[in-house]
Design goal:
3 domains, Ribosomal Protein S5, domain 2, 9-stranded mixed beta sheet, 7-stranded mixed beta sheet
Length: 460
């Protein structure tokens, strides 16, 4: 019988090859390919026996009515909003984020709250010693919570501990990259170890009905390290975002089998841990520079929550042959498109100027409704004239220069009126009648050229 061949697997993307090379052909990363031991060969007749040893699976129709999904509320409204109203029994969640962003802090607070409610909670740390976790708990004021703390990296030892005694309601594994399975002949953190360790823990969650939360490291590109198959195995993938220079942290769901994937949770990092932010709009625009050129307030939507943020732009003469384009908090390709539309449709040339664009507060905006606010901020900075302090801006810019309406205009305007704004510049839409009921003056703009003419002529 032929001897099984070893595989070489990239630790960045999980691509496998038959031979080693210094550079991965799939993702282009250098020195990330590691040899993995081959799987043990199956005995003679194992394939035939496997076909005959299966058990019948019970089938049911699409119209079958089962019991409603029971959710465990954590007591943290922002976290519950992101996961769809609470944690589902038997589910597995993967939480990723930059080092030091606050993943362990948030999960320790949630674990303490659930344990204080009378549920068994186990916090298993593979990175920190027990005394380090206790110090964090003391700083957060949750040292008295009945959380069972353990430190281990062997998946077999962890599962054996979880199976002893009453089934835990919540299990936190910090982090999955430190776990190792003794059946896999490779170092912890490799693709094979992360995949095998995650599979073992997820199987325990499904069989026992426990909620397992896996903490994951991220790469320099912001993706969770390890094989992407882990993100497919879990029920929900959450990213914890934020800039260390800002106090705000954003918890964003990118996958959720039991709820929406477009909700965000906003937290404030304080000396006593992460605190919920019930009204993020008031904080994001609370310290804005009134009367400064290049600042526009964008009325956005994150999931079902309207969110107002300030978009700042700076247009300055460039001493370089190739002007610089720096973007923080939004898509650089979207900025390039708006600059091209301003030049081709509105006659504004920014070819010899540096352009800096920033979303205040560390928030990242992904919806195209911010195009109008970005364009207004750019024109305001170019002319050196401030925009109306009492106005909000939203609308999508097309390549022809026309402004397209965006969804949920009424919700955006109600949030703006609640925070004291009196005017809204937006694309024409059919539901302006409902939106006008909020007591805010509407100023619909049909195309970007007309907006440029108004800003340059009226001095707004």
């Amino acid at each position: 019988m032929a001897r099984p061949q070893a595989r070489y697997v990239c630790q960045e993307c999980g691509a496998a090859s038959a031979k080693w090379s210094g550079r991965c052909d799939d993702c282009g990363a250098w020195n990330t390919i590691v040899e993995e031991a081959p799987a043990p060969p199956a005995g003679p007749g194992a394939r035939a026996r496997g076909r005959r040893s299966g058990q019948l699976v019970e089938l049911s129709g699409l119209g079958s009515h089962g019991a409603p999904v029971a959710r465990l509320r954590t007591g943290n409204r922002e976290f519950d909003r992101v996961v769809g109203g609470g944690l589902v029994a038997g589910s597995a969640l993967l939480v990723g984020g930059d080092p030091g962003i606050g993943k362990s802090t948030l999960l320790l607070q949630i674990a303490a709250a659930i344990a204080a409610a009378g549920h068994r909670v186990i916090y298993m740390s593979g990175e920190e010693a027990a005394d380090q976790v206790r110090l964090r708990a003391a700083r957060l004021g949750v040292a008295g919570a009945p959380v069972e703390l353990g430190t281990a990296t062997s998946v077999a030892d962890i599962v054996a501990t979880l199976e002893r005694g009453a089934t835990p309601r919540l299990v936190v594994i910090d982090s999955i990259q430190t776990m190792w399975d003794q059946r896999i002949d490779s170092a912890p953190g490799t693709v094979a170890q992360v995949r095998a360790s995650a599979q073992t823990l997820i199987r325990f969650a499904k069989e026992r009905g426990s909620i397992v939360v896996l903490v994951g490291h991220v790469t320099k590109d912001g993706q969770i390290a390890g094989p992407r198959v882990v993100e497919h195995m879990v029920d929900a993938v959450l990213y914890f975002e934020g800039d260390r220079g800002h106090r705000f942290r954003i918890l964003r769901g990118v996958k959720n089998r039991f709820g929406p994937t477009d909700e965000i949770g906003v937290f404030d990092m304080t000396g006593k841990g992460l605190e919920e932010v019930e009204n993020p709009s008031a904080l994001f625009i609370g310290a804005r520079d009134r009367g400064a050129p290049g600042a526009a307030v964008f009325a956005g939507i994150e999931g079902t929550r309207p969110l107002l943020v300030e978009i700042q732009a700076l247009v300055a003469p460039s001493p370089l042959g190739t002007p610089r384009r720096a973007v923080v908090g939004t898509d650089s390709a979207r900025l390039a498109m708006i600059l091209a539309v301003l030049e081709a449709r509105c006659g504004i040339s920014l070819a010899g100027r540096d352009v800096y664009l920033n979303v205040a507060g560390g928030l990242r905006i992904q919806e195209p409704a911010a195009d109008l606010a970005v364009a207004a901020a750019l024109v305001s900075s170019l002319h050196g004239e401030p925009l109306d302090d009492g106005a909000v801006w939203f609308g999508e810019v097309s390549l022809s220069g026309a402004l397209r309406p965006v969804a949920q205009s009424a919700g955006r305007l109600r949030e703006a009126a609640k925070l004291g704004f009196t005017r809204a510049v937006l694309a024409p839409t059919d539901d302006l009648g409902e939106a006008a009921a909020g007591g805010i003056r509407l100023d619909p703009i049909e195309d970007l050229a007309r907006l440029v003419l108004q800003l340059s002529g009226s001095g707004e």
